Model the fold of this input.
Amino acid sequence: MKYASTDFQIIGGGINGLLLTLELAKSGASVTLIERDRPGREASWAGGGIVSPLYPWRYAPSITALASWAQDYYPELVAELTANTGIDSELSESGLLMLDADDQDEALLWAASHQREMHCLAGQQIYNRESGLAPGFQNGLWMPKVANVRNPRLLQALLAQVQHFPDVTLLENSEVLGLESEGAMVRQIRMHGGCDKKPFTIPARQVVVCAGAWSGRILSESGKILDVHPVKGQMLLYKFSKPPLSSIILTAGRYLIPRCDGHVLIGSTLEYEGFDKTPSAEARLSLQRSAESMFPELQAMEPVGHWAGLRPGTRDGVPYIGKLPDWQNLFVNAGQFRNGLVLAPASARLMADLLLGREPIVDPLPYDPARQ
Ligand SMILES: Cc1cc2nc3c(=O)[nH]c(=O)nc-3n(C[C@H](O)[C@H](O)[C@H](O)COP(=O)(O)OP(=O)(O)OC[C@H]3O[C@@H](n4cnc5c(N)ncnc54)[C@H](O)[C@@H]3O)c2cc1C
Done:
């Protein structure tokens, strides 16, 4: 089969690849999106959908810059997708309640200097907000504007939206095996696809690797180096008849996320085990214990779901967004680690700005892949 040459070839159909496809398609460019499975089935599906970093003041300013831009843009993005596709991603401004963090002073300073609303809660004020929490929490930090999004639905909406553009070609069930280059130019993308895994190539013009935790592996198969590694995260799901909590609760690194229909997610583990994403009995027990210690009503319940996903980690916790050094037409947008859902709209906009020669939304230097 022969494929028409497009302006851009994007490898990976998670939230980063789909949003970048949308950004480029909106600018009038033609795009081929290549996905080895169906789009939106990996980390972007597995995540919790908190539209904020956890303990946001503990991150580098470069993460805050992308997160702030994206948090402000999320309502517009979701409204546009809902209007265009009929799929509601259920963005809900539930607020984030962080309990017993021991660095409250730093948190409050950070919030004031970044215009993010944050309030201290003490003793009974915590229980006035969430009456079902376990007793004994002494202090809390409350961020009322933090939202959560139903990420599997967001992915469905994005997929439907990009398919509305006639100049977007979606190659699903097509796994990239390598990039063939001449000098500093990638010339062809080599892959196999379909039930019979038939090998084929497509021409490369401007190639962007958005393959999440697999980005380093794809590039290393073509002799190129990118420090992105998989970090496994497991989640549990409970179901109530109506939401038992109104806010996201975070304590000791574990969180509960209430969805509007009564589902409650508990996350998550951080495991460095390569590309294995099998859920484990130990993690299930550990997450159950954490959930019950936050919200005792869960002691009488069994989870209705348990899964794992692979986050794309980097050495310094900052994503790579930009051109790979020594290459003329090879770019990357990957490595958003625990924050890929919140950062994705800003990461995609920044990557599109760089590809299209527009004024970038934030200073691109901290994300430059040349810093590896
Ligand atoms: C348990 C868990 C909880 C999380 N919670 C949150 C949260 O609450 N908030 C938040 O902001 N972030 C969260 N995250 C992080 C977030 O989910 C990720 O950072 C983000 O989804 C990464 O998106 P991506 O598009 O880069 O990668 P992915 O969604 O993994 O997409 C990469 C895509 O590339 C494809 N691909 C791989 N190799 C190839 C190949 N050779 N050829 C073609 N296609 C290929 C894959 O099939 C996949 O579809 C969480 C993650 C996990 C695992």
